[in-house]
Amino acid sequence: MPPSAVLQALDLTIQGFWNIDFVLTFVTGYYDGGQLIMTLCDVARHYARTWMIFDLGLISMDWIFFFVDYVIYNDDASATEWSRTLRMLRLMRLVRIGRAIKLRRGFAAVQELLHSQAASLYLSFFVSLGQLLVLNHWMACAWFGVSWLNADGENWVAASGLKHRDVLYQYLSCILWSFAQLGVGEFQLPPTNSIEMLLCAFIAFRSLITAATLISTMGNLIAGLRKIREDETSEFRLLRRFLKHNNIPHEVGHKVTQFLQHQYSEKQQSRSADVRVPLLDLLSPPLFNELCFERYRDSLCKLKLVDDLLEDPDMQTVLALHQLARNSLTQLVAASGDVIFLSGKVASAAYLKVNGSLSYYRDDGVEELDDSRWITEVCLWTPWVYMGDLEANTVSDMLCLDAATFCQMLNQTYATQRAASIYAKRFLEAWPL
User: Fold this and answer.
1) Most exposed among 60, 148, 181, 273, judged by the fewest C-beta atoms under 10 Å?
2) Rounded to whole angstroms, how far apart are CA atoms 235 and 263?
3) 111 to each of 48, 115, 325, how far by Cα in Å?
């Protein structure tokens, strides 16, 4: 393809991207045995042992090609002298295909951002489709490029009459030929020499592997998407049979169905806090405790005591807070109209709204609660009874902090027990009785 300003700009953009990637890799940490390594010397040493030579070679080769294409090739006299050499050098650009291996890390990073199994399957499907298109594009380019090796003699381009056709027609002919190798059609562009015959045999073998792996993978992904829809239909069909068999009133049945549809959708999106992750069973108990604490850190820090303890914590305080997060917190889901607690009942837990809508009914009126503070925090510091009724207006997620377990966890160390005792006295002194 003849040089142009657009192609030159694209070349510079791509080269700039990989040059920046080369530099940033020296300051990008890596994991070794589950531990994050961020030391610059270790990062540089690890990069030197893995991708650095390959990346440096490709970057150097890219700049050489850029110089050859847009400096030497633009000189007509030099172009004639370098004509055959340029054809050979351009074929070396196929080495850059190796960069596709590095792009897998980007795909894995995108997968981590998706919390829905269906979304993950859709992404995998379109990535597989993209891989098929890119692979056939590469094969089409290789098939056309092999004719340069014998440009002045016999080659398939001259034999098929494509030599004097426009670039678009040549490309479409090659891409159609590459798809035909998958067995989805027939388009004859026969080889005319040994090198072309060798490449044609390689492409035929590649097509066999592609048909056996990539296409079957796409089929499995489609089957996975279909199974998700069938499972949902089957689950709710079973629910309707249960409601009908047990003569559940329509109003109650509708309420149950709507709530379960919401919960099922949350489960599929993996946003539900109660989703069980079997892989977490492999964590050590201290690491699992730390994970639980980080999961609820923002919520726990809405308790002034916890926020104060985290300002300058020692190891015992940190471990006590980790155990507190694991053992005293429970995730609750309330349907619309559910009553969480009633006035006059002994207060055994404090609650925090995560999302949804909650109303607190007292003798002096109704209060719409937000997520800025814990409800009935006072029961953590002294025996208490609920002074009002808490009701969910919509499907709501809440955190429940068990008062007895909360106190038990804080009593494990002298520092946390003393801080809690001092805070409780101050809290009750300021509490409006």
Assistant:
1) 60
2) 13
3) 27, 8, 29
Model confidence over 85-95: pLDDT tens digits?
A: 555 555 555 55
- DSSP lists the bridge partners of residue 367 as 360
pLDDT at 417 exceeding the cut of 80:
yes
- Which of helix, strand or coil describes residue 389? strand
Going from the N-terminus, what domains does the chain have, and what CATH number goes with each? 1-113 (no CATH), 116-272 (no CATH), 278-430 (2.60.120.10)
Dihedral sign (CA 268, 269, 271, 276): positive
What is the Cα–Cα distance from 409 to 429, expressed in whole angstroms? Answer: 24
Task: Give the chain's length.
Answer: 433
The residue whose two tokens read 């003798």 is: 363
Task: Copy the structure tokens of residue 402.
Answer: 């068990």
**Dist. CA 315–CA 410, nearest whole Å:** 14
- What lies within 8 Å, CB to CB, of 314 at 6+ separation is 415
Residue 151: CB partners within 8 Å, gap ≥ 6? 84, 87
* Backbone phi, psi, residue 369, to 5°: -90, 145
How far apart (Å, rounded) are the C-alpha atoms in residues 220 and 195?
37
- Express each pLDDT in 327-354 by its tens digit: 999 988 888 888 999 999 999 999 999 9
Considering only CA atoms, which of 336, 388, 396, 351 is closest in space to residue 366? 388
Q: What is the rounded average pLDDT for all residues in the chain?
A: 81
Q: What is the pLDDT of residues 167-223, one digit of tens each?
A: 888 888 888 888 888 877 666 778 888 888 888 888 888 888 877 777 777 778 778
What is the C-alpha to C-alpha distance for residues 35 and 25, in angstroms, rounded to an integer?
A: 18
**Pairwise CA distance, residues 276 & 305, whole Å:** 30
Round to whole Å and give the CA distance between 365 and 359.
Answer: 10
- For residue 40, what are the contacts with CB-CB under 8 A and spacing of at least 6? 26, 27
The pLDDT tens digits of the residues spanning 253-290 come to 887 888 887 777 766 665 555 556 777 787 888 988 99
